[in-house]
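User: I've been trying to design a sequence by hand for this structure and keep getting stuck. Would you show me what you'd pick, starting by listing the structure so we're on the same page?

Assistant: Good idea, let's start from the same input. This is the structure you sent:
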């Protein structure tokens, strides 16, 4: 039986349809539903000459597959659904999945870039657009959003994350799940798959798949809130992470899957393993055989086996031997069936071809959205002497660097379905925008190559220009899964190129296209302006040009701390005080580096300026269950309309357990005309002030609190409030 809570997506009608189907299934049929394969993995057996896909087609005909992912489009999706309809008695369609991480054919900015917009509503729109595009190809299950709180820029998957903060990540989790799970009324709907549940972002030393050693406190205070939000927002599935928690990899971890996810949160959707994770239990050394891996996983609460084939090979036998109760299988299958019913797949397993004109109109709308997302994701880090925005008229511009005439790398990691020919490169964007300005281009050097052969040509181009715009950073292969780095510097000869160009004495704008925060304190000596542009997707160059020439005033803010050097990592604003805050010898400091960030969490500049008045509260004392309002007067003191992300932080000064120095409890993106001011207010109540006490309960403890309202985690006016007994 599955519960039908009020307000849940699991209506009595869905539940009863699932139960009827289940009652007609054999044990093999049931385990088939719990089995998922990667269609993109297609080795050919050298002895038999039979391809993996041929084997899978046969498995599908026999009803031994419930889900497939990595298909190449609508035609293939329909072909496989047809196999089910023609050959199986129950005709339960395949749930077709895909890593739709930041767009499908229309590639949007990487998630870390979208997080820099501090605008979850924008992510809702991009997630919905991506689902609409993927659904047209039969993909109704997107393996997104990635909501692992990420504190380590060495970890390549920070690119897929929303950054380091639990609140910002939670807000994006909600918007992304709701956007991705677009419901086309009577037609198909899509399912999201928030991942990786949980703690995967804390891999030791930033090395992907490495050990995670995580206290229950950090798990519950920092890592889990975005997942809880995703579940409360109706996520229809969740992906268990590869890593261990307290010694047990998550796909076999009943504490995570049963106690927390099902027990405490009442999650009703599908728990999928990550890729081949059941097999990895053997490699981890927590299962001695496939059978053992199978038993541990299913009993821990995992419903679907991604790609290992272990469920289908062993589960029927384990049930027959009484090692796994059939009721456990039934629960998993009911969840899978319920999701398929909810998505409308049972009535409509096939995708219909969309008329080319309608597809073109939809695509144009998504491209416009991609431009909006690209420019909103950009963070202005430095702008000495107001070098930016550049004038479109009458100045000559040298565009230099390996990421300028480059339409591949701005796609970013996980953009399987995007095409470089759809990408507006930075050079193309600048050329389109620059009007009468003369543009010279030279690559200068490759991204990761040490060769300086191209320097002479680049120097020549720079000499002839009034201003130099450099496109620097990382290739798309340098971030994403399994792409950890031990250096946060510019790869290859890029730094040398910057040094030589800057020596000419021309004004230099450095645009950084990267999948992670880089640690480039030296760049400030050479570049008058620094623009963090990430990997921005198909409209990368247009978005960058909008910012460089002032058609759009940048309002992005960093969702992660930028370090001075790799030795500071992990560095994040939500840190504890310690008994010895940094203050010199025998304190928590470095003898050879500052402990402060290069650019703090929440930081970003604008072409206008803002001033903050003092923070005022509606009262200075409150009860633990009371509410007060904190206000600040914000004024646009510059000459352009602009957006400020006003951030509110709190610290519990004395608590029963150590507290972070600051915790983000609210933010608002406010647009003001020159000279305009606005009162920005934050409501502060139990949700904002609660801490996880010694017994792991969320409680507001009486005492003194400090509130800050300001432009980033390192600045802001503060005020004290007291919570009375
Ligand atoms: C990744 C997941 C992804 C899955 C399927 C795994 O290696 O960790 O994020 O969804 O592969 O491609």
């Amino acid at each position: 039986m599955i519960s039908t809570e009020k307000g849940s997506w699991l209506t009595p009608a869905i539940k009863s349809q699932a139960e009827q189907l289940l009652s007609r299934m054999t044990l093999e049929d049931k385990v088939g539903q719990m089995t998922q394969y990667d269609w993109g993995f297609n080795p050919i057996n050298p002895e038999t000459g039979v391809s993996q896909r041929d084997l899978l087609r046969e498995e599908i005909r026999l009803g031994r597959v419930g889900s497939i992912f990595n298909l190449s489009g609508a035609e293939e999706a329909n072909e496989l659904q047809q196999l089910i309809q023609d050959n199986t008695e129950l005709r339960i369609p395949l749930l077709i999945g895909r890593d739709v991480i930041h767009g499908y054919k229309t590639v949007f900015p990487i998630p870390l870039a979208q997080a820099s917009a501090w605008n979850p509503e924008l992510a809702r729109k991009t997630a919905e657009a991506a689902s609409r595009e993927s659904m047209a190809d039969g993909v109704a299950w997107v393996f997104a959003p990635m909501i692992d709180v990420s504190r380590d820029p060495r970890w390549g998957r920070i690119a897929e994350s929303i950054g380091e903060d639990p609140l910002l990540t939670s807000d994006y989790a909600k918007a992304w799940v709701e956007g991705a799970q677009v419901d086309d009324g009577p037609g198909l709907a899509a399912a999201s798959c928030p991942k990786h549940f949980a703690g995967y972002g804390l891999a030791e030393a930033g090395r992907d798949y490495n050990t995670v050693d995580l206290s229950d406190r950090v798990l519950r205070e920092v890592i889990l809130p975005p997942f809880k939000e995703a579940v409360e927002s109706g996520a229809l599935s969740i992906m268990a992470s590869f890593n261990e928690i307290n010694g047990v990899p998550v796909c076999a971890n009943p504490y995570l899957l049963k106690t927390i996810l099902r027990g405490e949160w009442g999650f009703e959707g599908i728990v999928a393993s990550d890729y081949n994770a059941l097999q990895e239990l053997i490699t981890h050394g927590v299962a001695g055989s496939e059978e053992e891996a199978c038993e541990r996983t299913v009993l821990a609460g995992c419903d679907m086996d991604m790609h290992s084939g272990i469920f289908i090979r062993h589960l029927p036998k384990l049930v027959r031997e009484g090692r796994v109760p059939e009721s456990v299988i039934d629960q998993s299958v009911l969840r899978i069936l319920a999701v398929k019913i909810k998505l409308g797949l049972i009535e409509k397993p096939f995708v219909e071809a969309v008329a080319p004109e309608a597809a073109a109109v939809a695509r144009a709308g998504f491209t416009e959205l991609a431009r909006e997302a690209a420019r909103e994701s950009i963070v202005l880090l430095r702008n000495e002497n107001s070098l930016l925005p550049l004038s479109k008229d009458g100045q000559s511009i040298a565009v230099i660097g390996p990421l300028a005439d480059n339409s591949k790398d701005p796609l970013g990691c996980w953009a399987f379905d995007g095409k470089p020919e759809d990408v507006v490169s930075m050079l193309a964007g600048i050329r389109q925008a620059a009007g009468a300005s003369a543009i010279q281009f030279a690559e200068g050097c490759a991204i990761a190559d040490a060769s300086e052969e191209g320097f002479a040509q680049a120097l020549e181009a720079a000499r002839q220009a009034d201003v130099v715009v450099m496109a620097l950073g990382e290739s798309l292969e340098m971030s994403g899964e399994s792409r950890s780095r031990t250096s946060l510097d510019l790869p290859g000869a890029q730094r040398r190129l910057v040094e030589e160009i800057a020596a000419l004495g021309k004004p230099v704008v450095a645009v950084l296209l990267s999948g992670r925060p880089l640690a480039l304190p030296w760049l400030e000596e050479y570049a008058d302006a620094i623009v963090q542009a990430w990997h921005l997707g198909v409209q990368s160059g247009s978005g960058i040009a909008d910012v460089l020439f002032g058609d759009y005033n940048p309002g992005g803010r960093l969702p992660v701390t930028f370090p001075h050097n790799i030795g500071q990592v992990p560095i994040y604003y939500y840190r504890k005080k310690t008994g010895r805050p940094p203050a010199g010898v025998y304190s928590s400091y470095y003898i050879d580096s500052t402990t402060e960030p290069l650019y703090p969490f929440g930081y970003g500049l604008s072409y206008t300026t803002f001033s903050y008045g003092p923070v005022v509260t509606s009262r200075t004392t409150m009860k633990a269950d009371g509410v007060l309002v904190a206000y600040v007067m914000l004024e646009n003191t510059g000459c352009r309309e602009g957006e400020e992300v006003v951030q509110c932080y709190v610290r519990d000064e004395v608590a029963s357990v150590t507290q972070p120095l600051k915790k983000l409890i609210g933010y608002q993106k406010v647009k003001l005309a020159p000279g305009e001011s606005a009162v920005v207010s934050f409501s502060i109540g139990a949700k904002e002030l609660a801490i996880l006490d010694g017994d792991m309960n969320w409680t507001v403890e009486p005492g003194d609190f400090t509130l800050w309202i300001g432009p980033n985690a390192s600045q802001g006016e503060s005020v004290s409030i007291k919570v009375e007994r």
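That's my pick for every position. To get oriented when you compare it with your attempt: Residues 356-376 form the longest helix (21 residues). The two ends are 45 Å apart (CA to CA).
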